[in-house]
Amino acid sequence: xMADAREDFSLRPAPAIPLDYPCAAPEPGQMTEVAPELFxxxxxxxxxxxxxxxxxxxxxxxxxxxxxxxxGNDTRAHWxxxxxxxxxxxxxxxxxxxxxxxxxVGFAGPFxxxxxxxxxxxxxxxFLAVARKAETAESLLSAALxxxxxxxxxxxxxxxxLERRAKSFGRYGPLPASxxxxxxxxxxxxxxxxxxxxxxxxHSLEHAMLLASDESLLIAGDELMPVASPPIGVQMYxxxxxxxxxxxxxxxxxxxVKEEVLVLPSHGSPYRGLRRRIEQIRGHFAKRxxxxxxAARQPATAxxxxxxxxxxxxxxxxxxxxxxxxxxxxxLLLARGALIGEAPGDxxxxxxxxxxxxxxxxxxxxxxxxxxxxR
Length: 375
Ligand SMILES: [Zn+2]
Hints:
By secondary structure, the chain is an alpha/beta fold. The chain has one domain: Ribonuclease Z/Hydroxyacylglutathione hydrolase-like (Metallo-beta-lactamase, Chain A), CATH 3.60.15. It is 35% helix and 18% strand. The protein contains twelve helices and 14 strands. A seven-stranded mixed β-sheet has the order 1-2-3-4-5-6-7. Strands 8-9-10-11-12 form a five-stranded mixed β-sheet. It has a two-stranded antiparallel ribbon with strand order 13-14. Helix 7 (243-254) links the parallel strand 11 (217-221) and strand 12 (262-265). The chain is globular.
């Protein structure tokens, strides 16, 4: 359960204090030392975001690597130049995946073959990667139509969006034949430092973070990016999931970490200012929750709420992602009793209605959100 203080959806403008970025970004094929024996390299991505960060931990004779990029020859060429160049031709003993998305572990199979590394990640993330890799346009379509159309997305429009999404398949290469499980509460010794593993549902099913025991470094994956709040969406295979609740719990636990910690995100630059960033992200989601309630002043489907709350994403053609994010807001509000779900008797789409009195809704929508992605 979450504490009362975190059940308040009212908008708290995020502090305007910027984050500190102490590290210069590495050039392609190069790495930058961000802490003793810990190096930062970047791999290109063919879509928004531009790159994914990977972390290289010097273990003396060998390396441990965190995340390895998308499947494909472009990633292979970048790794080859890193391995032959700044990594000095040494082997890699371990590849750790923060989570199972393709830009993090899509190249895991070839990487382990090239380097001899074992592959470690949380168990649910392994199965997520296996399932995503196996998706086909056909399998996606039947599950998706059930989920999306039930939530009000007109079927013809939904089919076209799914066909576009199907074209983005193929970003996973072969996965390694097996994996080593890392799990919440575990301690790993990497590069002479002890690291504690924490996992949580949120951006993914069991997303791992690694915190150095002296709290100098936090490998944060996609959960604490410096500019964009993490996309947190309900997936079609688990329509009643409430991933935002667990994510908020994780943010609350992270407040206990030293503010001087250097946060190592998967996209964007390493930064200091953990609590400032947590407040910004909370402000962002508070705004989205308030917008969701506002959009449900009259009974509305998730499709209608999505087109209001995420109108910019929808205009850019990211409807399937925005739809999952809408459901994560809806499911959190349902769980808190702030939204009521109405299933029509005629088999039509589910509709949602704000349970909060109108005066409270006005209060919720007054303040602004200062999170960077909204500027
Ligand atoms: Zn991700």
